[in-house]
Amino acid sequence: MPELPEVEAARSVLEGALDREIRSVDDSDEWVCRPHRPGEIAGALVGGRLTAAHRRGKTMWCETADRDGRPGPHLGIHLGMGGRIVVTTDADDHGRAGGDPRPAAGYTGPVPRKPEWNRFVVTFTDGGQLRLFDKRRLGRVRLEPDLGALGPDAEEIGREEFRTRVRRGHSAVKARLLDQSVLAGVGNLLADETLWQAGLSPSARADELDTATLDHLYDALAAALRSAIEHGGVHTGEVIGFRHADADCPRCGAPMVHGTVGGRSTWWCSKEQA
DNA sequence: AACAATGTTCAGTC
DNA sequence: GGACTGAACATTGT
User: Which stretches make up the Formamidopyrimidine-DNA glycosylase catalytic domain (predicted)?
Assistant: First the structure.
């Protein structure tokens, strides 16, 4: 689930947790909170509050203030492969603490309680909580996250910079799009969607692409990003539902084919992206 | 049971 | 040292 569009939505949810006094913090998951020791993050936050929520690529961080309003450490949050942010208030929680925030479509029964999937929880003095809900446990929380290795955000990068950064190096163009130090925010599905929209082979060498092709790719990425944000996630991309065996390209009808590019499972149109 | 999964990181190889 | 590749990471779903 989490690529730039989903993370931006999560960042927006995070804003509901701002300016509320922190009563306690459960940072006992030593894997998710590594390299911090249990209690370390709690010690830095309890009594203070979160004051702003930011995002660059797939990384989010909150500014904090202590009980006297002085600036505190940044709280970094990464959703990993499937994490979600849940923010509750005392009034709207209805005892669902720990429930899966996204029951399967059409499921109308009780929301299953899986408290163990809440990997990091901040409880406010008003009784509400901020939770990192993550079944797969690849999400991450840490103080003072290092953003130095991230390239410019995929939503903000300019045409010129996109061109020079993507073209650098000899790897496949999809690998360049996925490299968070080239530009930050593109994940596996968004990369496949963007390349399909652009009619470009995922394994084309990035340094062999001409300027017109790179500009076309830039436009395709901007459009795919905007569409995903507007429609609620990268899974709403036009080709995403056709990333499976025996599927045909929804545009030209030629068979979709599969392979590994940039170390990730990749689907492309056998005719338009040859 | 074996394998893939919307992400990152580390070890190994050029 | 830099650039690149593939496996590993923890866990769930198919």
Answer: 2-139
Q: Environment class of residue A201 by beta-carbon count within 10 Å: exposed (0-12), middle (13-18) or buried (19+)?
A: middle
Q: Which residue is nearest to nucleotide C7 (CA to C1')?
A: A263
The string of pLDDT tens digits covering residues A64-115 is: 999 999 999 999 999 999 999 999 997 555 445 444 454 444 344 445 568 9
A156-CA/B12-C1' distance, Å: 35
- CATH of A159-269 among 3.40.50.1820, 3.40.1550.20, 1.20.140.10, 1.10.8.50: 1.10.8.50
A229-258 pLDDT, tens digit per residue, is: 999 999 999 999 999 999 999 999 999 999
Identify nearest nucleotide to residue A258 by CA to C1′ distance: B4
Long-range contacts of A95-102 (CB under 8 A, 24+ apart): A97/A129, A100/A133, A101/A133
Amino acid letter for position A260: T
Average pLDDT over residues A253-265: 97
* A127-CA/B12-C1' distance, Å: 50
**Does the domain formed by A4-143 have CATH 3.20.190.10?**
yes
Hey, where are the domains in chain A? 4-143, 159-269
